[in-house]
Amino acid sequence: MSIDTESPAPEEVPELVDETIADNEVVLFMKGTELMPQCGYSQKALNYVKHHREDAVCVDVLQATDAFRSALERHSGWTTIPQVYVDGEFVGGSDILEELHQRGELAETLDA
């Protein structure tokens, strides 16, 4: 499921990020949409998440990338995208998801 982030004003992004993380079990902030990821790392993260969870929420950050980076950094300390959150907690980006998958821990992590 995607959240409509079509052209949010930069000042609206922090609240949008806070509410999305708080209101959803699994959230993927990514470049592009579920149907059309716009970067390889976002595609990779989406594949890992969707392998274990059909009900994850995806948020396209491309309409206000700098504002999303800043808002997400307040939660994770990271400015890179994609970022995955489970039950309000930052999990990581595509490399962390890959590492969890290789260790056999990703299913448990995403099974919030």
Describe this structure in words.
This protein is α/β, with parallel strands linked by helices and about 110 residues long. The protein has one domain: Glutaredoxin (3-Layer(aba) Sandwich). Helix content is about 45%, strand content about 15%. It is built from 5 helices and 5 strands. It has helices spanning about 15-25, 40-50, 65-75, 95-100, 105-110, and strands spanning about 1-5, 25-30, 55-60, 85, 90. A 5-stranded mixed β-sheet has the order 1-3-2-4-5, sandwiched between helices. The longest helix is centred in the middle third of the chain and has 13 residues, at about 40-50. The two termini are about 15 Å apart. About 35% of the residues are buried.
CATH fold topology: Glutaredoxin
Total domain units: 1
CATH superfamily: Glutaredoxin
Output the CATH class name: Alpha Beta
Anisotropy-based shape: globular
Can you summarize the main beta sheet? 5 strands, mixed
- DSSP E strands, number: 5
What fraction of the residues are assigned to beta strands by DSSP? 15-25%
Give the averaged pLDDT, no decimals.
92
The appropriate CATH architecture is 3-Layer(aba) Sandwich
The level of helicity is 40-55%
Distance between the termini: 17 Å
Structural class: alpha/beta
* Lateral arrangement of strands in the main beta sheet: 1-3-2-4-5
Give the number of helices: 5
Order of helices and strands: EHEHEHEEHH
Radius of gyration: 13 Å
